[in-house]
Design goal:
This protein is an alpha+beta fold and 75 residues long. It contains 1 helix and 2 strands, in the order H-E-E. The chain has a two-stranded antiparallel sheet.
Length: 75
Amino acid sequence: MNCATRINVATIGVIFGVSGLTHGFFETLQGNTPTGGLLINAISAGNSWTRWTEGGEGAFTIIPNTPNPPQHVRS
């Protein structure tokens, strides 16, 4: 592998790594909430903790959060 290929692979790896960290950070800010499907927004457009009003960072989840089933109380 030549030097240019190594530099390109390392640069892309760093960019993907940093974007993965920010993606996960913003998902944790949303908390454990039901997703409503398999497509989610890690960074939704127009939230108070974002710096932009347009756009977002969408994602696909394999295991969506579902609402908790009602708890039946026995009397």
